[in-house]
Specification:
The chain has 6 helices and 9 strands. The chain is an alpha/beta fold.
Length: about 190
């Protein structure tokens, strides 16, 4: 399994508990180095790389997670990123994206008087919803596309795995929770 856009490697320990081999990829050399350092003691962690290094090594994955990545990408970056992910996925491999659901980008705009620019607090450049994310994945050639909303905020006493179980039950029952986070998944033909 690959954590694409792994940042500081915070998801690697959780992935290592459910996947045979875990890798990280990030465009930031600082993030790659931090992920390697933080995850060095994890037995099934196989390394963190830049996307170009991973492609040059011929690494292929059964699953790729891109957690809170696609809302940061311009059209050109999004197209390039999907091309990289497609090249890294095995046929039949699964891509999973998470992103804010129906984010009002204007609500998090900030003004910097030093540079005289307005920007999004977390550098988000696009907003997604169930329909736009599903259509995007289908237009990119993924099959068996599913999208749903959930809430990754940690409610008291439920924890991350309780949230995953809650979301899985809702999906299994065909319930769209209409919550602040969005998940989209598809299979590479």
């Amino acid at each position: 399994v690959l954590d694409f856009g792994c940042g500081g490697g915070f998801l690697i320990p959780a992935l290592s508990r459910v996947a045979g081999e875990v890798y990280g990829v990030d465009f930031s050399p600082t993030s790659v180095a931090l992920t390697k350092e933080r995850s060095a003691s994890i037995a099934n962690f196989r390394g963190a790389y830049s996307p170009i290094e991973a492609l040059d090594m011929g690494l292929k994955f059964d699953g790729v997670l891109a957690v809170e990545v696609i809302e940061h990408l311009s059209d050109e970056q999004l197209t390039g990123t999907l091309d990289i992910i497609r090249r890294m996925l095995e046929p039949g491999g699964v891509i999973v994206f998470t992103t804010p659901n129906e984010e009002d980008l204007s609500a998090s705009r900030l003004y910097c008087p030093e540079c005289d620019h307005v920007f999004h607090r977390w550098q988000h450049v696009r907003s997604w919803d169930v329909e736009t994310l599903g259509a995007f994945l289908e237009n990119q050639g993924f099959r068996d596309v599913k999208t749903w909303t959930t809430d990754f905020s940690p409610p008291v006493g439920l924890g991350i795995w309780g949230q995953v179980r809650r979301a899985a039950r809702a999906i299994g029952n065909g319930v769209d929770l209409g919550l602040p986070h969005l998940v989209g998944a598809g299979t590479l033909p």
